[in-house]
């Protein structure tokens, strides 16, 4: 091979190898797995609970590709009751844009929860955490506890007050 062409070919191959390695490394970093847990920045720990009608809701399927607001509470909690109109409004206005709302009632009977759903005309799903296993998993200390999952199921908000509508719209 010509003495001038040989270094040129080597330089070209080297450049190609360097660029292909660089792009492969970047691609791996972009798709790195997010740790599962219960804190902001972690992928939400999975759970399955039953609605008052006995239908099973599994978090992974329910929240898939949607912004999801989880609200832990109870019928006897005044602050929880105070949030219901706000949550109904959020759900009514933003569900078509990709918002899910899921109320998680802790350690109460189907009868009590059904009564509240009818009285308050709750328009989003309510599940029963009868044994408080999910509340324990998520380390619920005070209620109501609002947790927002982004479209990838990653926790982006965890507070005892509801988020603003603007915050939710920004995630959609």
Structure, described:
- The protein is elongated.
- About 9% of the residues have low confidence.
- It has two domains: 32 residues; 136 residues, Glutaredoxin (3-Layer(aba) Sandwich), CATH 3.40.30.10.
- Strands 4-3-7-6-5-8-9 form a seven-stranded mixed β-sheet. The protein has a two-stranded parallel sheet with strand order 1-2.
- It is 41% helix and 23% strand.
- A hairpin with a 4-residue loop joins strand 3 and strand 4.
- By secondary structure, it is α/β, with parallel strands linked by helices.
- The protein has six helices and nine strands.
Summarize the model shown.
This protein is of the alpha/beta class and 172 residues long. It has six helices and nine strands; from the N terminus they run H-E-E-E-E-H-E-H-E-H-E-H-E-E-H. The protein has two domains: 1-32; 36-171, Glutaredoxin (3-Layer(aba) Sandwich).
């Amino acid at each position: 091979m010509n003495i001038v062409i040989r270094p040129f070919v080597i330089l070209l191959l080297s450049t190609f190898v360097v660029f292909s390695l660089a792009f492969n490394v970047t691609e791996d970093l972009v798709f790195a797995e997010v740790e599962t847990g219960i804190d902001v920045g972690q992928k939400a720990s999975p759970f399955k609970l039953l609605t008052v009608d006995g239908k099973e809701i599994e978090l992974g399927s329910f929240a898939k590709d949607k912004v999801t607001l989880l609200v832990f509470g109870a019928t006897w909690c005044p602050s929880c009751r105070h949030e219901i109109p706000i949550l109904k409004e959020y759900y009514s206005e933003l569900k078509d844009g990709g918002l899910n709302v899921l109320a998680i009632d802790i350690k109460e009977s189907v009868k009590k929860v059904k009564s509240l759903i009818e009285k308050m005309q709750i328009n989003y799903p309510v599940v029963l955490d009868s044994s408080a296993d999910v509340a324990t998993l998520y380390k619920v200390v005070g209620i109501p506890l609002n947790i927002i999952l982004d479209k990838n199921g990653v926790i982006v908000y965890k507070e005892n007050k509801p988020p603003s509508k603007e915050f939710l719209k920004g995630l959609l």
